[in-house]
From TrEMBL:
InterPro entries: 7TM_GPCR_serpentine_rcpt_Sru
Pfam families: 7TM_GPCR_Sru (PF10322)
Full protein name: Serpentine Receptor, class T
Top-level taxon of the source organism: Eukaryota
Alphabetical keyword list: Membrane, Transmembrane, Transmembrane helix
Cell wall biogenesis/degradation found in the keyword field: no
Organism from which the protein derives: Caenorhabditis tropicalis
Residues annotated as transmembrane: 108-129, 162-185, 206-228
């Protein structure tokens, strides 16, 4: 999808393919940060969970380079959360505004991006100045299974509450915007517009299902965070489900979007260059 965007971003200047270019851009940025976060999560959680590299992890020492891996882990996590909210918010803005869509979306995208990057770096920067911890996991994990975390965040109630507030904010944004999208799609005008274009209807379905797919793992991840804050005795069991939720959130969303959205399918009887037809004022989302 990134290759497709860089090759065709100048042509995707309208909503003829059922998606606004800013919505597409925000989706790609969201999934980029989610994918990078998943890769870093392998280094800090999944691989140490296997107990294969426990001796190596323990020998890293408190002032190891791994502090910067943890810094990247939290920066990418926070960015992924923020841009998930942006993706849903921009789609709602396009559906409920009729004029100056491009200008409004551009302003929201760049202002939200600047604020997101600033907060993400500011939240994660103290990690680079503190030591690294290796924590032994309880049953049902095998003996030697650990997670690598920051001493700055471990037991830091203020930072944990801040992270909880951030994730709660994103979930509320996703739920509200998804409900607003469904209400709009069920309106009479939208139904009539969708019936006139099968391609548009498929695009709207893909975007709506994508938003719903994002909600499910986000809610379960929030449950894990709540269990951690409350020091639940079932935290280890919930932690076992976490990799599945990450996979569902990152990989399934990307694969579903790519395989189902009409943007990535050539129109029958047209050349590949005919990607754009209508103006920004078109009522497609």
């Amino acid at each position: 999808m990134l290759i497709f965007y860089f090759k065709n971003h100048k042509k995707i200047t309208t909503t003829s393919n059922g998606i606004h270019p800013i919505v597409f851009k925000s989706f790609l940025v969201m999934q980029f940060w989610n994918t990078v976060n998943t890769i870093l999560n392998f280094c800090a959680t999944r691989i140490p969970n296997t107990s294969v590299f426990t001796s190596f992890c323990v020998s890293l020492g408190p002032d190891t380079f791994f502090r910067f891996v943890l810094f990247g882990l939290y920066v990418t996590f926070n960015n992924a959360q923020f841009f998930t909210g942006l993706f849903c918010s921009i789609r709602v803005m396009i559906m409920y505004t009729l004029v100056n869509q491009n200008t409004l979306c551009q302003r929201l995208f760049w202002s939200w991006s600047a604020i997101s990057y600033f907060i993400s770096v500011l939240y994660s920067l103290p990690i680079t100045f503190d030591s690294v911890l290796c924590t032994q996991l309880d049953w049902p994990f095998q003996d030697g299974a650990i997670i690598i975390s920051s001493a700055f965040l471990s037991g830091n109630a203020r930072m944990s509450n801040l992270l909880f507030g951030l994730s709660t904010f994103v979930i509320v944004v996703i739920v509200i915007t998804t409900v607003m999208v469904i209400v709009k799609l069920r309106s009479k005008a939208m139904k009539e517009a969708s019936h006139r274009s099968l391609r548009r209807a498929k695009a709207e379905t893909t975007l709506t299902v994508t938003m719903i797919l994002i909600i499910i793992p986000s809610l379960l991840a929030q449950g894990l965070l709540i269990a951690n804050l409350n020091k639940s005795p079932y935290y280890s069991f919930i932690l076992c489900v976490r990799p599945l939720m990450l996979d569902l959130r990152v990989h399934v969303v990307s694969i579903y979007f790519y395989l189902t959205h009409p943007l990535f399918k050539k129109k029958v009887g047209t050349s590949p260059s005919t990607l754009a037809v209508k103006s920004f004022g078109s009522a497609t989302y």
